[in-house]
Amino acid sequence: MPADIAGAKAALSHLDIEEKEVAIKAASRDFFWYSPVLKDRLDHVVADFVVRPRNEAEVIEILKVCYAHDVPVTTRGAGTGNYGQAMPLEGGCVMHLRHMDKVKEIHPGRVICEPGVLLKDLDAATKEHSGQELRMFSSTWATATIGGFIAGGSGGVGSCTWGSLRDLGNIIRLRVVTMEEEPRIVEFTGEELARVSHAYGTNGIITEVEMPLAPAYDWVEMFVATDDFMDAARFAEALANQDGILIKLATVFEAPIAKDYFQRVAPYVEADTNLIGLMVAPQSMDGFLTFLGRRPEARLIYRNDDFDWARTPGPVFEYGWNHTTLRALKVDPSITYLQVRYGYPNHLDLIEKMRNELSPEVLQHLEVLREGGKVIFAGLSLVKFTTEERLDEIIRLHEEAGAMIFNPHRYTLEEGGRQTVDDRQLRFKKEADPKGLLNPGKMIAWDDPDWDYSRMYAYPKLQAAE
Amino acid sequence: MPADIAGAKAALSHLDIEEKEVAIKAASRDFFWYSPVLKDRLDHVVADFVVRPRNEAEVIEILKVCYAHDVPVTTRGAGTGNYGQAMPLEGGCVMHLRHMDKVKEIHPGRVICEPGVLLKDLDAATKEHSGQELRMFSSTWATATIGGFIAGGSGGVGSCTWGSLRDLGNIIRLRVVTMEEEPRIVEFTGEELARVSHAYGTNGIITEVEMPLAPAYDWVEMFVATDDFMDAARFAEALANQDGILIKLATVFEAPIAKDYFQRVAPYVEADTNLIGLMVAPQSMDGFLTFLGRRPEARLIYRNDDFDWARTPGPVFEYGWNHTTLRALKVDPSITYLQVRYGYPNHLDLIEKMRNELSPEVLQHLEVLREGGKVIFAGLSLVKFTTEERLDEIIRLHEEAGAMIFNPHRYTLEEGGRQTVDDRQLRFKKEADPKGLLNPGKMIAWDDPDWDYSRMYAYPKLQAAE
């Protein structure tokens, strides 16, 4: 059935509906444009209308009305994702959860809140309440929502200690509304969490989350410099392997990233300076400085609690994760990036190999990550983009060498993930979204179960560019 | 010079001096008797007098007076060590720090206190103040002191997450008094901490400690049972490798330890039941139960927040670390133990090999430990003692197989450690204890630099048995 946009809008007119074209356009975009490939495909995509529910009852009403009118619903938080997670490929309704920002309960080690609360505001509330904070957050902490992080993210600042969002224990409970004739409310814990976490809102809408908390410390943020790149990588790995030193971030930037792209750091580094960005708990600083003292190859050039730089560089985590790419893009619009996983135990060799083969076309930006109890690296490598063919070749070179790529130049769950169908997500979509109206075009397994991944998937119902 | 005991006692008579023979005898003993070897050598050892300083000034006075009178000083907390750490081999003065139990300052992530405070009382104070607790503690938490733990211990409950006391960051600062004509006060941080931590009070007396804290949770304590021993070991390792599940203890007991030695657990297990003791943070219980659900070979038989056992078994950590040996000893006085380190990555193979060769003469008791960022196992194996020769042979079999032994049947730092001289400790002893009066007989490097470790060291000035 064709979508009855006008009918749905009319039925929802008593809610907070956005009608202004420019605002609809803004709410129809995320940070997909980090990828020239996605920019080429998705730049024109726009919703028909935007609605901002104030509570779960309104979410249910929106889903019910849109179901009745066959209107696709793409749900978003702040839209800070880079995989086009929140792009409404078919148009229809964008459901923006910004009003659902209540922090409901805070307990030792956990918090219950609505999905639309900003990570920053959630941390402020839990810190104020009892000196706690989220275990991990994206570098878009200041603007992103917890619901968006869970539905569209994988980990971030804190993952060097706690692993990824998908690891057992890093999400406690999700409350979800289905898109059926009569939407249901379901509560997911344990094995069920994988149905809807990192599912881009394709099979249910999260209306409440329960997340574990860690103690909030006044993290000491630092930059450490080395002349040799592998020294920097080894430094970050060895620090993360210090069981008694509590860290929240260890990021490695190959030269000349710091000099070329980090405007406020640039005066204090040379073009050949490799940089390490760190967050260390204050009670671990004595241990950290001892660790540092054993490594004459590493120089502490900045700490946020004691520095003489002319201007503060701002939070060090806003240099890491995908803020690195953002900073590079602002200076050189031809830069894009890859998401790489260098697995244990060959991670350092693999990093060195890829660098030897591809630098400076591909510059190494590494994030320390825990996976299966081991310290490894995620790469958010900066890529000097030339053509899609060359980008695909660079990806192929990584995969052939044994590095896993989570391709950020694709908008489907499968292509941006492990290139396999997630049966748990697919089965739940069949149950919870029988008409396939939730964030359409993002789950290949739903659209085209026989897809062979030999080329980039193109959603047949993607809006045509004008 | 011979010790002038009477002169020292007279000079210290205004302090809290213990004169009663039975009390002096009690204060001259630690838990060395877990070892039949040490029991044979040290059972008769007794101090000439015991003094209990109330503050640092009195510590200084005692050390100064004993220095002037050439009286050896062996310092103790609760005397819960098992290596004879607190045994006054030459007699002389035992300095008991029980009065020095003030908690001075509590901050986010750290605490400053005197050495004589009980671990239990320290945790109570930091929990009450701000929901914090020590990162790790010995299973003698209820009776042991923080100073004794630092001077004589290596790790314990919490080391599965935070590593060992010697790891950078697990001790922040130690304030130490030397034993010279004019005792000095020195403050140690960083690299200097290794001079006096785990030095048995042989080269300085700790008068103040600064330790890192972790959040205090209402840990869920559990017993999980398996039929197969290696299943239990793999379960504990895999759980500790779950980055998102916060644990404080993972202990593995080979059958029939639980049935034979754990009186309150025995009714709920069979002779062939292998047991896992766990402490899991409450916010991690959903993740834990999911982990458990994936392992049909493991059965949850007890959790302290929901159980139908006739009697509570008490704290689960009081079954682990060296409480396991204590419980076994109470049932079977012929039991003793070994301290083993099964290093990464061959730890599981090594454990299986030693068990195949030696069970049931040696029963596996494993503690999950983090070392260098990896999950490994410490073994506190239960040994059915026959002869010293056989015990030495069992040790040799472990060492030949590649397992490191920290021999708890020796009273010197070197033999109970890595069988090498710790230059940092020795150098500081030369500076801080020129007469060699602090806990004499415990540092071979001081007594006999050319000792070749071919046999058990026997301190020449050890008190003769009557």
TrEMBL record, chains A, B:
Keyword Electron transport (UniProt): no
Domain of life: Bacteria
InterPro entries membership: FAD-bd_PCMH, FAD-bd_PCMH-like_sf, FAD-bd_PCMH_sub2, FAD-linked_Oxase-like_C, Oxid_FAD_bind_N
Sorted UniProt keywords: FAD, Flavoprotein
Stretches assigned to the FAD-binding PCMH-type domain: 42-216
Bilayer-crossing regions: none
PANTHER family given in the database record: D-2-HYDROXYGLUTARATE DEHYDROGENASE, D-LACTATE DEHYDROGENASE
Protein name: FAD-binding protein
Originating organism: Kangsaoukella pontilimi
